[in-house]
Each structure stands twice: as C-alpha cells, then as structure tokens.
Amino acid sequence: MRELIIDCFAGGGGASVGIEMALGRQVDIAINHDPLAIKMHEMNHPNTYHYTEDIMKVSIKNQIKQDDIVKLMWASPDCTQHSRAKGGKPVEKGLRILPYGVRRLCVQILNITGNLPEVIIMENVAEIQDWGPLDENNKPIKERKGEDYKKFINSMKSLGYEFDSRELVAADYGVPTTRRRWFGIFRCDSKPIVWPEATHSKCGVNGLQEWIPVSKNIDFTDLGKSIFERKKPLAEKTQIRIANGIKKFIINNPKPFIVPKKESMAFLIQYHSESRKGDVRGQNLDEPLQTIDTSNRYGLVTAFITKFYKSGTGQRCDEPLHTITTSPGHFGLVSAFLIKYYGSETDGHSIKMPLDTIVTKDRFGLVNVVFDIAGEKYIIKDIFLRMLKPEESKLAQGFPKDYIINHYKDWSLVPVQEQTKRIGNSVCPGIAKVLVESNVPYLKKGERKPNISINHDEAQLRFA
C-alpha cells in the first residue's frame, strides 16, 4: 500500500514545496492545465508525476492502484473570478465552479481505492465565501451571495467529510508578506482539524516575534537608475506616484527606511490606480510585502541624499541651494521635479512639512527638502527607480532561496513576466508548511533537500 499526496492545482509549486518543507517528501501527483506552470513544477519536483490537464476532465487511474490511499490532497482553484480585484467586470462561470473539480477527484479516488482522500486542504481568496449565483449579465447577485459556497461545502460534507475554515495572514507565520487567504480543511479520518498558532504579529507582542519586513529580501546592491537619465521619460502617472511616495514615505515619515550602507532612503510604490488624488499606493520597506499578484506592480524608489551641512567647506544650512548643485547628482532636476508635483502657489511650494523638515529655496527658484536625521542635515540629490525582481518577490512569498524560477529542465530561460505570474499565482509555501505540519505530522519522512545551486561568490565555482 502506498500513501499518496496530490496537489490538484499545482501551478509553479508553492503548495508543493510547502508540503515538502513540512514532510521532507515531494508530492506524488501534480495536476495543472497550464503547460508552462507544469514545466516550472517539474524543474523543482522531478520525482512527481505530472498531469497537464483540466481538473474537470483529468483521469488519474493510471497512477493510483486499488490498495493505495491518498493521505493528503491540496487544492487551490483559480481565484480570479472570486477576487475583489476583479472589480465589476463580468465573471466566467467555468472558473467559478473549479472547486467542484476537487469533489470530482475525490469521487474518482473513492471509486478506484474504496477510500476518500483522508485530508484535503483548500486555499482561495477570502471572497470565495461570497460565491453565489450570477445574473443574466454574469455578475454576482448581491442578495444571494454565499449560496454556492454553502452548497459546495455541503456537497463535500455529504461525502463524509468534517469541515472547518479560517482566514490566515501569511505574515503571522513568518512569511514576509501580508497576503490574506481563506483556508478550508476537510477530513474523514476521525482526527481533529488543527489550526497552527501564529508565531509573529505586527508589533511582536505577547511573546510573538515581529513581522518579517520585505527589506530582508531586497537586493540593495542594485537600486536601478536615475529617473532623470532615461532615454524615454517615465509615464506621468509613474512620476506622480514617485512624488507622492516621497512626500508620504520620506518627507512626512518620522522614520523613513534608510538603505543599509548607502546614503539613501527607499520605499515601494504600486502600479495600481489610487483611490483619491494626491495619494499613493505603496509601503515602507520595514513592513512585510503586501499581496503579490500575477503582474509586476511594485517599484523600488530610492532617494539619494547627501549632507547639507559640510563643516569642511564652510557651507551652512541657511546658504542657498545653488552652492551645492555643482556636486555629483541632480539637485536642479530634483528641484524641478518637486516644484512640478508639489507646486501650486506662486513661489512653487505648497507642500506641508513636519516641523523637523526644512524647505530650501535659492534665488534661482530651486526648491528642495532638507532632512534632519540623527541631528545631521541631508538633502535629496537624486531619485532612482527599478521594478521589484522576480527573485525578490519569490523570497517575499516565502519560497526557499534555492527554488528555481528562472529556467526549465532544458535550461531554456523563463521570461520575467512568466516568473512573476507564477509567483503571484502561488500559495505561500510557509503557510502551506505550517498547515500540513499541524494536520498530518505522521507523514513526515525527513527534511527537504534543497535544489543544487551554484555559489558565484568564491574564486572557484562550488555547488552548494
């Protein structure tokens, strides 16, 4: 008799590697309709049997024998048709019924082995609990929200499952993202459903550790390039986001994030529509990353600063700005940038500053901001921007560092857009790990073995 583990919506492998982290064994069967997702999964889970098929049509009878028993099944159906991010757009009925593919597979396994999968863990957006009928325009009927969700849960219970569900935030379990998801657990083995205790919290109180900040996963050796040295100017909306971000996360922030070993301050902006004028969607780097989606919407903005008071040159804080514009940097361009996006009055300055911030304006009309950091005066000399890298998103999502997302088994490269899509669609491995550890600890075979990686930091290449 074999004890099997199945990942029904395997994708790039977030749930599968989380299971492997918990149990020290790879999943036996992985199913996904997307050939590219399966290729990435195969790269990292070579001992798994892969089905590139629709969950509503797949037959797994060639991989399951009569005396096998499925001990664990993970299922994360497509969430886009339930997510609030969908907005008011019509939804696709076919994708909304994907949870029934899980029930279909349960019945198929029951017919082959005589037993249901013992434990099923499902993951989706919290809005799946509002799953209900659609009107003639394929839009949810508000008055009937939750009806189809309850029908699905009851259909699973009718097979003989006990059920419980919760919404969990990944950051509460040591994953550097505040991604919130619904998790449902079904069991039919008479054992209790167990929810893992949180290990972290936002403020680290009551014996819990503080949330892990996204800064732990940022490559600060690459801060991008100056927004003033681009062949093609940045889009107007991007420039507005940067300007509003500087105001929110640096100028009006009593504790801006200081980039390690560099005279600069940094924050993230999001390429999403803002809810009101003058606002910016983004975050500090001393917080976990907000939810990652399937497109790269995070930009790392870095404001380079230099000391404004230099005793060696006799330069004083009250001297006009033009006295330092000959230093390396783009003081004049920064000034013009601030005037353009903050200026609405005749003197080119209308921004409200905290008390410890000084606005400097020289006789040529240049405007800039002087910061007080630990008693030292600093001024912005340049602004850099780059997009978040897939490797950074991967680590923020909780994947192991050795998890391979940039190439397939044949060494063909994975496009950056495809890497980002896989990460955005993935289950946070860290939260899959703790759920599996809590509910099926008896399946543990050992520790996960990392993928072979090459260490480039030494004179000779060494496989780690």
Question: Can you describe what's shown?
Answer:
This protein has 464 residues and is an alpha/beta fold. The chain has 2 domains: 281 residues, Rossmann fold (3-Layer(aba) Sandwich), CATH 3.40.50.150; 163 residues, no CATH class. The protein is built from 10 helices and 19 strands. A hairpin with a 2-residue loop joins strand 16 and strand 17. Helix 6 crosses helix 7.
The CATH homologous superfamily name of the largest domain equals Vaccinia Virus protein VP39
First and last CA, distance: 36 Å
Largest sheet: 8 strands, antiparallel
Strand content range: 15-25%
| Structural class category | alpha/beta
Tell me the radius of gyration: 26 Å
Task: Label the overall shape.
Answer: elongated
Order of helices and strands: EHEHEEHHEHEEEEEHEEEEHEEEHHHEE
Q: Output the CATH class name of the largest domain.
A: Alpha Beta
Number of strands: 19
**How many H/I helical runs?**
10
Number of domains as seen in the coordinates: 2
Question: Per CATH, what is the topology of the largest domain?
Answer: Rossmann fold
The low-pLDDT segments are 309-327, 344-367
Portion in helices: 10-25%
The mean pLDDT is 83
Compile the SSE list and pairings.
Blueprint (H helix, E strand, L loop, with lengths): L2 E5 L6 H10 L5 E3 L3 H10 L4 E3 L17 E7 L17 H4 L2 H15 L5 E6 L22 H11 L4 E8 L10 E8 L12 E2 L7 E2 L14 E2 L9 H16 L5 E2 L5 E7 L11 E2 L14 E10 L23 H12 L15 E4 L5 E7 L2 E12 L2 H7 L19 H10 L3 H11 L14 E2 L6 E2 L1
